[in-house]
Amino acid sequence: MSNEIIYKLLKLFIILLGFLPRSAAKFCSNIIGLVWFKTDKRHKGIALKNISKAYKSEFSPEQVLNLGKQVFQNTVHMIFDIAWAFRMDQEELLKYYTIKGYDNLKKALQKGRGVLLLSGHIGNFELLVAAFGHDPDFKMYGAYRKFDFQPLERLMLEERQRFGTTMIPLQGAAKKIDAILKNKDAVGTLLDQNENWHRGVNVDFFGRPACTNKGLAVLALRTKALVVPMCIAKTGDTFVVEFLPEIPLQSTGDMIKDIENNTQNYTAAIESMVRKYPDQYFWVHNRWKTKPYSLIPKK
To answer: Domain segments of the chain: what residues?
Structure first.
């Protein structure tokens, strides 16, 4: 079967799924999420371990288990919400959004150095793009990792770009991002995934060292672009998009220390958002996989 046919079938499936009543979609996602939670022992173990260590004495074992179930169910429900949103235009979709702190983004843009929008895998981050595109004062871009499966990559790119946001593959994106920031526009990126030790720095995330990509700190130090945290969360049948105040750039001249300190500040901002919406964070990811030490490779 060709990629073209697979793409059309995927798109048809998403369109049809989008017509499912929202109450039925919630019921289905709860059932599917619970089955996933019960049967996928590997990811269930990762999620429960992450939650229990992140909250330590704050959550009882029962609370950890209940939160784990919600995480799996909410993750499944993201697919239904993407399908539901796919059939709407931006004006109609924004009726379901409450946008808070947008002035934080506008104030940062007015400084004329471009803005790096910082987020994580919180809520339905695929639907963040609907919060942009309606503002004529700047153009929105998103840096992302491409899907290996070409039909899915094509479909998701169509979804992400239909409101005016332009997506940029992370590989080889440096020069493009430099040009975007020079033009005083905004680029969104995620910074909450585990990184290999040689490409990251260890910073505190929920009281544990987490190896985090240092690229955002390097970029901010080089371009002096403003970093503004943002997230999206679901509340009932609506969505809340929040923009936090810009994170001041620490630039002392000690490059190693500056990278570490700025990456720590970015990670702390993500943690604050996760703590606000713990059931909507992707705890299934092995965030603390890379340890704060490594063996010297044998020759």
So the answer is: 3-280
